[in-house]
């Protein structure tokens, strides 16, 4: 049996729709569009909003108007760097536009309107279709997803797939979902569970189940990360050299700031760094490079 | 924030990423903490998490006794996505930070967790709305001092990181 291919899972909470950002827009006659868009391209590039169509034709009403994004709604100057203690400053009723745009709008004698538009590019076709209802969006396959689908997925060997299935089975068992799904009403409590796997060794290095009954932030993933850290400390305890050589080396690092000079401190720092490089080269840096398998249970339905 | 900066300086002296945190309730400092990721080998031991744990320990783990919603939190750098989520979950009172966190910030720099709120893991979509509560956040408080500490740390490289983005002072580049 082949594992199901990779598929995009929307971020928690994004089912409520995209994150929105306010922009200033104008509605102009089609013949004004070319001139305006040309000027906007240099005066106000879309920047992080390039997924949005800058111009679209509104079908409602006659004559036909073209709706154009001018720029993001800027906060008033004193809101950019909030004065400590001050209340949050809401957007001014008057458009606060960059000078070049203010002149452009003034020449057109059209009042800008605000609109809330998706702040980020959609990650799936479904999101694109939904978000385009808010403001038209140009569809582009997200690079990261495209690369993953193109490169990573076919590279999974049969052995890797078996390993992945084994790890998922383990975290599934850990969550108590297995017994519950089998219909045993007296099975283990169903809860979130997580294991952390060293993919090179193909072995789980740490695991955790939800402990929020004891601590509000002891989520399964946090418990597992904590367990991985404990294991790390046991396997690679801080060496005494870390404590002993630190002061001179640290002073050098803090005061020397990159200038290399042949002093005792520099030599000491060098020796210390070399030792760190050797002793740390075989150990993982935090959980970097490790895989995480997670089962999140919710009312009899499971996600992983 | 001065107390939070003092915590950050202590972190720097211990070769930790210099970020410090202070929690205030009823005008009194009730907990202080600093980043401890290098010493614990745990990337989640951020200043906010360490400080929250200290408060919870003093309240014997009693969430109600900790009264997080009556607390203000001061931290020298914008809370990351994880910490912003944690603060939302605990329904924290106002949060004040120093400098922005352009790589991991959860209060506007990368994600707007402070506006969207955060539900517990595994909540159904309908339940998220019920538990939704954002954070009141202000930034830029003693920003220069916070940046200065981080610059000092990163100018010389994180000695615990495997291949530092910058070589450690006194060594030739790898």
Largest interface: A-B, 62 and 52 residues
Q: How are the strands of the biggest sheet of chain A laid out side by side?
A: 2-3-1-4
N- to C-terminal distance of chain A: 18 Å
Rough shape of chain B? globular
Distance between the termini of chain B: 38 Å
Strand order of the largest sheet of chain B: 2-1-3-4-5
Give the strand content of chain B: 15-25%
What is the makeup of the main sheet of chain A?
Answer: 4 strands, antiparallel
| Coarse structural class of chain B | alpha/beta
**For the CA atoms, what is the radius of gyration of chain A?**
28 Å
What class do helices, strands and sheet pairing of chain A give? Answer: alpha+beta
Number of E-type strands of chain A: 8
Mean pLDDT of chain B: 87
Oligomer: heterodimer
- Count every helix of chain B, treating DSSP H or I runs of 4 or more residues as helices: 8
Quote the beta fraction of chain A.
Answer: 15-25%
List unreliable stretches of 5+ residues of chain B.
Answer: 170-174
Mean pLDDT of chain A: 74
| Series of H and E elements of chain A | EHEEHHEHHHHEEHHHHEE
Helix content of chain A: 25-40%
Percent of residues of chain B in helical segments?
A: 25-40%
Quick tags:
heterodimer, A: 304 residues, alpha+beta, four-stranded antiparallel β-sheet, 38% helix, 17% strand, B: 174 residues, alpha/beta, five-stranded mixed β-sheet, 5 strands, globular, disordered C terminus, CMP/dCMP-type deaminase domain-containing protein (chain B), tRNA-specific adenosine-34 deaminase activity (chain B), hydrolase (chain B), metal-binding (chain B)
Helix-strand layout with pairing:
The complex is a heterodimer of chains A (304) and B (174).
Chain A: E1 20-28, H1 30-43, E2 55-58, E3 65-72, H2 77-80, H3 99-108, E4 113-118, H4 125-131, H5 143-152, H6 158-175, H7 177-181, E5 193-198, E6 203-209, H8 220-235, H9 240-244, H10 246-256, H11 264-280, E7 291-298, E8 301-303
Antiparallel strand pairs in A: 1-3, 1-4, 2-3, 5-6, 5-7, 7-8
Chain B: H1 2-13, E1 20-25, E2 28-34, H2 37-40, H3 47-58, H4 63-66, E3 71-77, H5 81-89, E4 95-99, H6 113-116, H7 125-131, E5 137-138, H8 143-155
Parallel strand pairs in B: 3-4, 4-5
Antiparallel strand pairs in B: 1-2, 1-3
């Amino acid at each position: 049996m082949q594992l199901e291919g990779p598929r995009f899972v929307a971020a928690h909470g994004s089912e409520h729709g995209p994150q929105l950002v306010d922009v200033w827009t104008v509605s102009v006659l089609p013949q004004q569009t070319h001139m305006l868009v040309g000027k906007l391209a240099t005066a106000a590039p879309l920047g992080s909003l390039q997924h949005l169509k800058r111009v679209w034709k509104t079908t409602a009403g006659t004559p036909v108007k073209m709706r154009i994004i001018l720029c993001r709604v800027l906060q008033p100057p004193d809101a950019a760097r909030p004065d400590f203690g001050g209340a949050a400053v809401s957007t001014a009723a008057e458009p606060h536009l960059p000078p070049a745009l203010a002149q452009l709008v003034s020449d057109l004698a059209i009042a800008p309107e605000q609109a809330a538009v998706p702040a980020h590019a959609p990650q799936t076709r479904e999101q694109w279709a939904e978000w385009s209802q808010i403001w038209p969006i140009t569809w582009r396959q997200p690079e990261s997803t495209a690369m993953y689908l193109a490169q990573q997925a076919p590279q999974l060997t049969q052995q890797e797939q078996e390993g992945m299935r084994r790890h998922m089975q383990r975290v599934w068992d850990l969550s108590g979902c297995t017994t519950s799904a089998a219909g045993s009403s007296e099975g283990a409590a169903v809860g979130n569970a997580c294991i952390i796997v060293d993919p090179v060794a193909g072995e789980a290095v740490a695991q955790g189940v939800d402990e929020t009954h004891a601590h509000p932030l002891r989520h399964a993933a946090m418990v597992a990360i904590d367990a991985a850290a404990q294991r790390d400390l046991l396997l690679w305890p801080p060496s005494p050299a870390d404590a002993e050589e630190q002061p001179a080396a640290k002073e050098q690092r803090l005061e020397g700031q990159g200038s290399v000079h042949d002093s005792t401190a520099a030599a000491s720092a060098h020796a210390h760094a070399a030792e760190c490089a050797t002793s740390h080269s075989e150990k993982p840096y935090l959980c970097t490079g490790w895989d995480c398998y997670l089962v999140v249970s919710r009312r009899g339905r499971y996600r992983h | 924030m001065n107390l939070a900066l003092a915590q950050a300086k202590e972190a720097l002296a211990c070769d930790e990423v210099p970020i410090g945190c202070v929690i205030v309730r009823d005008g009194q400092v009730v907990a202080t903490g600093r980043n401890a990721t290098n010493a614990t080998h745990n990337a989640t031991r951020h200043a906010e998490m360490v400080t929250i744990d200290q408060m919870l320990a003093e309240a014997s783990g009693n969430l109600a006794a900790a009264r997080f919603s009556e607390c203000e939190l001061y931290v020298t750098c914008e809370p990351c996505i994880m910490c912003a989520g944690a603060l939302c979950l605990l329904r924290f009172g106002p949060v004040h930070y120093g400098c922005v966190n352009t790589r991991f910030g959860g209060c506007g720099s990368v994600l707007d967790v402070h506006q969207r709120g955060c539900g517990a893991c595994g909540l159904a979509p309908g339940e998220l709305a019920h538990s939704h509560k954002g954070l009141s956040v202000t930034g830029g408080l003693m920003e220069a001092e916070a940046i200065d500490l981080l610059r000092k740390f990163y100018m010389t490289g994180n000695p615990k990181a495997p291949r530092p983005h910058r070589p450690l002072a006194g060594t030739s580049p790898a």
